[in-house]
From TrEMBL:
InterPro entries: NAD(P)-bd_dom_sf (IPR036291), SDR_fam (IPR002347). This is NAD(P)-dependent dehydrogenase (Short-subunit alcohol dehydrogenase family). It holds the Pfam family adh_short. NCBIfam families: PRK08303.1.
Length: 292
């Protein structure tokens, strides 16, 4: 069902991973989806990954939506302003904003105590993973204000309850959750909802490469890390965001940080393989329940 037909979305950081899964599932629900990022067929970003915004946009269109790739460095306010002006000129509205820019993998220093961390890397991670979200909201929310009922989704990693094992990483992921709360408070009177959404163990393209597997034989990665058997595809969190965007009562959740696994049980969707992975239940040592 194309529940989002006529709606316009921007997935900032939609090149790969959760961003790609979200863009495709919004497209499957009928939305027009602007897919922005730095990796194109002409030039890779410093992430040096093969995925591109053009590929994501083509997947959006193939799923039933209208994918529009736009190269944009979201750390550059001028480029984000130009992107917002393009959306304004072409569609005159923006209903869904997904802030999924990350770019912190090459900056992460796992196993390094904070008193030995590279401060330049920590600053760059903050600028890429948090400031980019703020810049994007700053330049796109004025367009969203034209059409009340919009939704802003901040994609994070975790609920912020436990320390994530590395100070810069923990700091930026927790800050993204706080961005959802802050935006929700300031936008409440304007009829725009802002939430945080976190996936569980995300089976992204990079994670598949890390385990030396493909989506076809991903379970083999469980030999290296048994937790990988409880992982989810990017489509799972994508379906969570699409379900929220189609929910006429989504405003009641404004300011909350939500999970792919809880939303799956509430809205009744599954991952692409028919499973319904529940990361919290897995971490408590409880068995995965079959989807109903």
């Amino acid at each position: 069902m194309q529940t989002l037909h006529g709606r316009v979305a921007l997935v900032a950081g939609g090149t790969r991973g959760a961003g790609r899964g979200i863009a495709v599932e919004l497209g499957a629900a009928g939305a027009t989806v602007y897919v922005s990022g730095r990796s194109t067929r002409e030039q890779r970003s410093d992430m040096d990954r093969p995925e591109t915004i053009e590929e994501t946009a083509e997947l959006v269109t193939a799923a039933g939506g209208d994918g529009i790739p736009v190269r944009c460095d979201h750390g550059d306010p001028g480029q984000v302003r130009d992107l917002a002006e393009r959306i304004t000129a072409t569609h005159g509205r923006l209903d869904i904003l997904v802030n999924d820019v990350w770019g912190g993998d090459p900056l992460s220093e796992w196993g390094t105590p904070f008193w030995e961390m590279d401060l330049d890397k920590a600053r760059a991670m903050w600028e890429r993973a948090v400031f980019t979200h703020l810049v994007t909201s700053r330049h796109t929310v004025p367009l969203m204000l034209r059409t009340p009922g919009g939704l802003i989704v901040e994609i994070s990693d975790g609920l912020g309850r436990e320390y994530r094992g590395n100070l810069p990483y923990d700091l930026v992921k927790t800050a993204v959750n706080r961005l959802a709360l802050a935006q929700a408070e300031e936008l409440r009177e304007h009829g725009i909802t802002a939430v945080g959404v976190t996936p569980g163990f995300l089976r992204s393209e990079a994670m598949l490469d890390h385990f030396g597997v493909t989506e076809a034989n991903w379970r083999d990665g469980g030999r290296t890390d048994p937790h990988f058997l409880a992982s989810e595809t990017p489509h799972y969190v994508g379906r969570a965001v699409a379900a929220l965007a189609a929910d006429p009562a989504v405003s009641k959740r404004s300011g909350q940080v939500l999970t792919s696994w809880d939303l799956a049980e509430e809205y009744g969707f599954t991952d692409v393989d028919g499973r319904r992975p529940h990361w919290d239940r897995h971490m408590r040592g409880e068995p995965e329940l079959p989807a109903r």
